[in-house]
Amino acid sequence: MAVKMDPIIQSPMTPQLYRVEKVIRETHDTFSLRVIPKDDSGARAFQPGQFNMLYAFGVGEVPISISGPKPSGRSMIHTIRDVGTVTHALHGLKKDQTVGLRGPFGSAWPIELAKGYDVVIMAGGIGLAPLRPALYALLEQRDQFGELSLLYGTRKPEDLLFTEEFEEWRGKYGVQVKLTVDTADSEWHGNVGVVNTLVQRVTFDPVNTIAMICGPEVMMRFAVLELKHCGVPEDQIFITMERNMKCAVGFCGHCQFGPAFICKDGPVFRYDQVKQFFGIREI
Amino acid sequence: MNKPVIIDPEGLNQLISTLTRMGFQVVGPTVREEAIVYEKLESIKDLPEGFTDEQDGGIYRLKRRSDKALFGYVVGPHSWKKFLHPPERRLWSADSEGNDFKIKPEKLESPKFAFLGVRACEMHAIAIQDKVFINDKYVDPVYQIRRENAFFIAVNCGQAGGTCFCVSMNTGPKVDTGFDLALTEILDTDRHYFVVEVGSDRGAACLEQVTHQQAQNEEVRQAEDVVEKTSGQMGRTLDTTHIKELLYDNLEHPRWDDIAERCLSCANCTMVCPTCFCSTVEDVTDITGTHAERWQKWDSCFTMDFTYLHGGEVRASTKSRYRQWLTHKLASWQDQFGSSGCVGCGRCITWCPPAIDLTEEISQIRDSETQTSKPT
What we know:
The structure holds two protein chains of two kinds. Chain A is an alpha/beta fold.
């Protein structure tokens, strides 16, 4: 059989080179990298909820969700918590340094589907990062959606991300932004408690609501329970899953969650499609 | 398609030389370290003449046969995946230049393998890996080029092994698709020959270079009898009725705890499995720190760090890893790729040190299913 010869491997496993355009300090342990392709071709289009594999030279590669920019931007923003070897190396990058990038990969938040609905966004910790592009997309066409709510919780007040944007979301777009933290000192005048307690504090029509949730599994479990309790149908609730990931293209097998490959079938899933496996220990 | 023909062992030898002349690296069964493994062949002298194998749970022994059969055994610990999906390969390398670095992709090597002695279950296993690496959303170019180049000389099994259950999985013992040539070895009292089915034009072209004659009806019938006899000899059976639902409904079955008492989490089953495809990546740097490489290596869902996620493993227990492996193989594989991930070759039973037998485990879960509460 005649086989077309290719001198090098054009593989989905080979990163493209991106330049760090800006490093943004978000919190004490979290930062954002805004990157553009080194060949100035403009970042590849992504959909809210998708992720990239970021490579730090000589250290390794990690999946990081895309946290921005606003729809007209040329770059891609990744908000990263400095918790492991690779993320620590990425934290060490400075403006104009090079980072390897593969992506975007994965499924997206159901922005089109949400048209005509109220939208409840629930985020825990760094889970707000992949939801920010969804918010930007909703706000860009604000009149297409009903009530918008952002219910956001972190461990401590100093862990809250993107706080400088909350006023614009509230004031300009009428988003019901409610915050809560697990623990705080007397400086904090807001809510203390888990995110699902905020559901009762915002206005939405449960049967006409699309919910988008991202956070630790335990947080999502209780968030789903609360939303279902309010009457949001299971097929209108979307969650994101996270697992170990090596390839992001369905070859390595690491990210399997029941029948799903989180890299290519997820990370965003409609709840009723994964609920059979959601919450089973060590699945 | 062409009618079956007859070749003798010397014809098989000519076939190996023809393929070698055509630029193929011929690989096939040979005896190494007291097992039948797939390695480079130069002539039929490298084939395991007069050998057979005894297989059972945790048991593999080579034995002498009383005849000079060249394919008188079943499958060993190796599968063809080591050629199509190499156990280790460099994905790319990178060199730093100050604050910058450049990535150097690998050259796409294009080895041409001719696989001699591929069994029916193995043809199915390769078709299953095709779905993972070529026919899904993304394509693995290394697998793809090796796969497209490969020439397949299949062999219909003349006997079944003690852990074989291809009949249950509908994957054998007769080779049905994907081959260029398919041989059935016949050992009469006074005659040793192969009935050859032609599966492709290039198979037919190759056969032109080999001394052969048209097969008589009697010879074709004899070949059919060989496969028929093998079908009746399966060492194991697996009832696959609603097996996906059976496993999905029994994710919390107590049998998983029982298996975990025996399972060593050694990963042997995944290494010998012809369809298991999982891999990991390793980043390495040289001592100067200016040269980095990324390697892909076979991995197993039985290893500790397979599911590592910020601070711990998702599947920390042996129970959860075995459940993942078996449920993936027999159930979720169907949702992912439209077929079972098991071809009934029996390797995972033979090469399991404590002899865990998936056919037995499934039958235990099935038999007790009515007594078990289902997860909500």
